[in-house]
Design the sequence.
């Protein structure tokens, strides 16, 4: 089904940028393990990946990321402050998620080595997590094995919005167990005309699982605006209505993440098409201008040079659309430098400047690999081990400076 | 219209999703107007979504209201799986022999 494929493409692009954010956040946390913003960004990235993967039935990712999220949740709740080794572990987990995602999207089975790696990481994660200490105030929030009653009435536009109710139920089932489910199929009125593209489905679900009302609510995140959802705890210590969420109540509660990227994703082909058209436009405006001059029509000539001026501005803006800040690919080097300096036993700091320098996207992509190679060489051969440096009277830590500026891109190492 | 026990057998095509739902429903409800017993062969349906399932539910409901007999025969694995998830297996008459439920 092509929409499913499209959705998967979007998911892939989004997860790639989320994984990038996660890595970025973890590297910030390495310098300051209590950076609230970074912690939240990392948690959000893992959480969103888990949620979206669930919708696509990528259970391996959901299962693994759940463990990562559990640990991150403790960090977020200030129950745990990560040390450098734990951040290394989380970076490895991030890489593992990337592998799982790639295989999941290609619909390939997991190789045994990857499964073993996943198990190893999960065990390591569990060791790092602080044992659950349930304080009185935390009882309501702590996940507990409970019996839940969910009542979901999907909006009529659910199908038209490309949503598939069964995906949500399957995802729900991955968080615990649906013990009983009743499907209701009801037209808004008994004599209403059945529209095959409207959704008339509602479900009453009994569900057993170690979870929280918030987590259950998050399962339906993508349809929450046009579905009615009620979540009740049926069987826990106290019988209480935990959350009754209706679309109306949620409508004015739009929390926007503080670091939400103010960007839109555009198909590169569309952009190229636009740039081509602008190119043609420049040529034809020049033709008009030439004709106006030849006919010695002063008014037309003036009008056409005005138009030519505007077209030139359009051309410049269009070209600028292809430009990206080099900072994003710089941040990739933070990880390279970090990992390599650990491997080599050297203490190396990376200094970046000129991250906001803009370059054509294709150039940024092309210089990525050679730059990585240059950096590896610089670290390998350009900086001595800490003990050698101290013996030579230099400070123990070496610095690698990356500076981007226009006219040329320079790379200096000390 | 008044013919008693006039059967129609229809085999549904491979896809029964939101893209086919409207057309499929229009065709089948039209068939229901003309025959008193409809046998739907579901063995070839390899792709079904909730919109497709809803068409089957609506046909069953309509048959119940209007006193027709509709059978949902040999559901494919995909259909059976979705019916199972939605716990609808009991809502569809999949018997081949004997009088219908209605």
Sequence:
């Amino acid at each position: 089904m092509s929409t499913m494929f499209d959705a998967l493409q979007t998911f892939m692009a989004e997860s790639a940028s989320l994984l990038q954010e996660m890595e970025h956040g973890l590297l910030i946390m390495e310098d300051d393990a209590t950076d609230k913003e970074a912690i939240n960004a990392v948690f959000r990235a893992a959480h969103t990946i888990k949620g979206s993967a669930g919708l696509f039935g990528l259970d391996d990712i959901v299962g693994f990321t759940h463990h990562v999220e559990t640990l991150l949740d403790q960090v977020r709740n200030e129950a745990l402050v990560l040390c450098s080794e734990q951040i290394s572990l989380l970076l490895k987990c991030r890489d593992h998620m990337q592998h799982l995602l790639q295989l999941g999207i290609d619909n390939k089975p997991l190789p045994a080595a990857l499964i073993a790696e996943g198990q190893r990481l999960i065990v390591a994660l569990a060791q790092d997590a602080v044992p659950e200490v349930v304080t009185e105030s935390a009882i309501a929030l702590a996940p507990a094995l409970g019996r839940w009653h969910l009542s979901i009435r999907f909006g009529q536009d659910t199908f038209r919005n490309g949503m598939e109710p069964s995906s949500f139920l399957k995802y729900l089932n991955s968080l615990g167990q649906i013990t009983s489910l009743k499907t209701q199929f009801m037209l808004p009125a008994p004599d209403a005309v059945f529209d095959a593209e409207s959704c008339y489905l509602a479900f009453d679900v009994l569900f057993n699982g170690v979870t929280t009302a918030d987590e259950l609510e998050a399962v339906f995140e993508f349809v929450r605006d046009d579905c009615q959802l009620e979540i009740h705890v049926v069987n826990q210590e106290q019988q209480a209505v935990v959350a009754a969420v209706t679309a109306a109540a949620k409508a004015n509660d739009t929390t926007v993440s503080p670091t939400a990227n103010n960007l839109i994703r555009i198909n590169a082909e569309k952009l190229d098409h636009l740039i081509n058209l602008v190119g043609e436009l420049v040529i034809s405006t020049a033709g008009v201008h030439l004709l106006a001059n030849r006919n010695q029509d002063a008014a037309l000539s003036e009008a056409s040079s005005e138009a030519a001026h505007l077209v030139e501005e359009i051309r410049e803006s269009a070209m600028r659309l292809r430009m990206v800040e080099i900072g994003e690919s710089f941040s990739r080097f933070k990880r390279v430098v970090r990992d390599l300096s650990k491997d080599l036993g050297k203490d190396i700091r990376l200094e970046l400047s000129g991250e906001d320098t803009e370059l054509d996207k294709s150039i940024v992509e092309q210089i990525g690999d050679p730059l990585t190679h240059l950096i590896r060489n610089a670290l390998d051969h350009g900086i001595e081990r800490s003990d050698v440096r101290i013996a030579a009277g230099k400070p123990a830590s070496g610095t690698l400076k990356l500076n981007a500026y226009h006219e040329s891109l320079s790379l200096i190492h000390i | 219209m008044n013919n008693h026990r006039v059967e129609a057998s229809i085999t549904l095509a491979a896809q029964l999703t939101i893209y086919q739902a409207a057309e499929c429903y229009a065709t089948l409800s039209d068939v229901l107007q003309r025959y008193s017993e409809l046998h739907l062969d579901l063995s070839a349906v390899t792709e079904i979504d909730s919109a497709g399932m809803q068409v089957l539910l609506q046909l069953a409901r309509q048959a119940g209201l209007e006193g027709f007999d509709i059978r949902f025969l040999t559901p494919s694995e995909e259909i059976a799986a979705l019916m199972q998830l939605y716990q609808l297996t009991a809502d569809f008459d999949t018997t081949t022999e004997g009088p219908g439920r209605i």
